[in-house]
Each structure stands twice: as structure tokens, then as C-alpha cells.
Design a protein that fits this description.
Helix content is 42%, strand content 12%. The protein is an alpha+beta fold. The mean pLDDT is 79.
Amino acid sequence: MVKGTTRRVIVVNAPDAELFEQAIFIVRSDAAKERGVSERMLVDEACRVARRCAPPQPQRGYVGPLFWSGLGAGMIALIWLLTTFI
């Protein structure tokens, strides 16, 4: 059934379209008129909501601070042992 009203929508394309291609947001009719919201603010809010709803991406190749702390402590211990016994 077709109704005689038009709606404003914002379409946000997914950067990595693994499962979804787009997110479509229907803009409230009073958002731009009564609240004084600009188009740029609408797009920014749509992108923020889409990012918040997306699952976090696993970080690949990230070596944590605990590893670097352990490596530094090991190097200091090795230097101490070498200077003590030489």
C-alpha cells in the first residue's frame, strides 16, 4: 500500500561489506524543523549509531603493553647477569 507521505532517509554504507551493505536511518519529521539540526549533524549521528551497533573488530598484529614490559624486564635481567658474571 502506498501512502502519500515522503520520508527523509540517511543511508550509511558499510566500509567492509562482509554481511551488510548499508544501514538506512529514517529521519524524524521534526528533527530538522523544530530542533534546528543540520544535515551534517544528521549524517554524523547516523554514522555514530551505526558504529556503536557494529561488533568490535579484533585487533590483528597488536602486541600488548604486558609483552613489552616483560621483554624490557628480561633484557635488563640479561644485561645485569652479563655484567655481574663477566
